[in-house]
Design brief:
This protein is α+β, with helices and mostly antiparallel strands. It is built from twelve helices and six strands. The chain has a single domain, classed as Glutaredoxin (3-Layer(aba) Sandwich), CATH 3.40.30. Helices cover 54% and strands 11% of the residues. A hairpin with a 5-residue loop joins β1 and β2. The radius of gyration is 24 Å and the shape is globular. The N terminus is likely disordered. Pfam families: Thioredoxin_4. GO terms for molecular function: isomerase activity. Keywords: Isomerase, Signal. This is Protein-disulfide isomerase.
Length: 238
């Protein structure tokens, strides 16, 4: 047992008395669930969840048709949310990257067509149902494939989104069909998406998905939660 001298006790009593007498400023406490509800669109075209002043900033460049991205969303994202984002230590931003070209256009345009607050729920739903959506067994008819070779990017996106069921999927999740079709037909959004993908390739050498960027640095050979989590843990501990 540690012995405490009388002088130390007296000093401690004086400090306690002083602390009790002085007005105490209450430090605002943010509920853990609040950071999970803090969702904003970023100027770079992504959507960020979590504390905007978080010590660790994580960006994922992902594709809605990428199996590894779907695996991370299902297996890693729940742990990331409850263990890091909810505590305010890490913010997480998802940026669409069309790694599969034309196949990605429709899902991206539709996924970005919903209100910001619905971005992650729709993204999670697309990832969870990815095998069903892009795994259909029947092929695009030859005549249609030939027609698509000279079609505009928006026409291709509209057809593929319908063929693979993405349009029906977002409509069932509450997006009006007219708005879905308008987003698929928006040429400016396609041009912006292409420009942002080019910028990501130049800034972070993004060539595949998922690509994780941790505090501004792209992480090589990190594709799942098992390899990402130790890096997050180390960054938080610094």
């Amino acid at each position: 047992m540690m012995r405490v001298g009388l002088a130390a006790l007296a000093m401690g009593a004086a400090l306690v008395s002083s602390a009790q007498a002085a007005p105490q400023k209450k430090t605002p406490v943010v509920a853990r669930s609040a950071w999970l509800q803090t969702v904003v669109a970023t100027p770079e075209g992504g959507v960020r969840m979590g504390n905007p002043a978080a010590k660790v900033k994580l960006i994922e460049f992902g594709s809605r048709t990428c199996p590894l991205c779907a695996r991370f969303d299902v297996e890693g994202l729940p742990a990331l949310k409850t263990g890091y984002i909810a505590s305010g230590q890490v913010s997480y931003e998802f940026r669409d990257f069309p790694v599969h070209g034309a196949l990605d256009l429709g899902p991206i345009l539709l996924g970005q067509c919903v209100p910001t607050r619905a971005f992650f729920p729709i993204l999670d739903a697309m990832m969870a149902n990815q095998k069903t959506l892009v795994g259909r067994s029947d092929a695009i008819p030859d005549a249609k494939q030939k027609e698509l070779q000279t079609a505009t990017p928006n026409a291709i996106a509209t057809y593929l989104a319908g063929f693979y069921g993405y349009t029906d999927f977002v409509v069932k999740h509450g997006l009006p069909l007219a708005k879905a079709n308008a987003c698929l037909a928006d040429r400016k959004k396609v041009d912006t998406l292409v420009a942002r993908a080019d910028a990501a390739s130049k800034a972070y050498a993004v060539a595949g998905t998922p690509t994780f960027v941790l505090n501004g640095a792209a992480q090589a050979n990190v594709y799942d939660w098992a390899t990402l989590e130790p890096l997050l843990r180390a960054a938080v501990a610094k």
